[in-house]
Write a structure and sequence with these properties.
mainly alpha, disordered C terminus, about 300 residues
């Protein structure tokens, strides 16, 4: 009787756990199906480009930019404007030579893969739904979030942040506050090396980009952006990353980087998906090193 009772008790304990496990597996499967559906719809609505309701508005800016004159279309308020560094365009060269529909298929898949990396399988469906608008537009906010997460292990990934949106690089204060000078040096050194290598092939374009950056401050976006200027958001971003560094809260870095976006487009809020990745050390133990010893609480 004792053995029988123990088996019944064990079965009762296992039953809810098995149900939760099955539910989690179902969510993962739903995420894959949902992502595939959204992928198809976004790609389908991207052709032909130029309709009132179309997808890939931001992605089209990368695809259409010309290496010979990358900043001929760089008006901040224009629907078609390329404002990132020349090296981003150079890196995109294998894709931008493809037909628009093929490019959009690959680019959309890359952004969906970024969501999967940030959320993991069980929150994939929720993540894709939350990021649908950003994926549809084709902006790089999700890739910035991935770079920030990866940057804790490979600081060179921060060069992607610094050479595209620039101001979210305020997240590097994490290394300054924690006196992790080696990581900071790698991040900045990698950025300088990338600029040097790229400048060999496009020296004039880099001068044009630096001139463009000096003309952009004070331009905060359109109706599609949170109406809070960067000059207001930046001090808050600094405070958030400093607080996070002092209390060993890595997830504060993508929050600060998001606040420091040149224009806080509503789609840019998807950078908060990086919080999920950075608050799940078990899932990311292979890509994120153990935190350095520091004073403060962990959350």
């Amino acid at each position: 009787m004792t053995s029988r009772a123990s088996q019944l008790l064990l079965a009762r304990v296992r039953s809810p756990w098995l149900a939760l496990t099955r539910a989690a597996d179902n969510l993962a499967e739903i995420g894959v199906v949902l992502a595939g559906t959204i992928w198809f719809v976004i790609v389908f609505l991207s052709m032909p480009f130029g309709r009132i309701w179309q997808t890939g508005q931001e992605a089209f800016c990368y695809w259409i930019a010309n290496l010979n004159s990358p900043y001929s279309l760089s008006d901040w308020g224009s629907p078609i404007a390329y404002v990132y560094s020349p090296v981003f365009l150079q890196a995109m060269l294998p894709l931008t030579h493809l037909p628009w529909l093929v490019f959009m298929t690959i680019w959309t898949g890359l952004l969906i893969a970024a969501v999967r990396y940030l959320t993991g399988p069980r929150l994939f469906a929720a993540g894709v739904l939350l990021a649908t608008v950003e994926i549809a537009g084709g902006n790089i906010s999700l890739l910035l979030a991935v770079a920030i997460v990866v940057g804790f292990r490979w600081p060179a990934a921060w060069s992607f942040v610094l050479l595209t949106k620039v101001t979210p690089g305020i997240g590097l204060l994490w290394f300054v506050v924690r006196r992790e000078w080696r990581q900071l040096g790698i991040a900045l050194g990698a950025t300088v090396l990338v600029i040097a290598a790229s400048s060999i092939f496009m020296p004039r374009a880099w001068l044009d980009w630096f001139n463009l950056l000096t003309a952009l401050p004070g331009r905060d976006g359109t109706w599609a952006a949170v109406p809070i200027p960067l000059i207001v958001r930046m001090p808050v971003a600094v405070a958030v990353v400093v607080w996070g560094a002092r209390t060993d809260r890595r997830w504060a870095v993508p929050v600060a980087a998001m606040l420091a976006l040149p224009a806080l487009w509503y789609g840019g809020l998807t950078m908060l998906l990086a919080v999920i990745a950075l608050r799940d050390p078990d899932r990311n133990r292979d890509s994120i090193p153990a935190p350095a010893t520091t004073q403060g609480a962990t959350a």
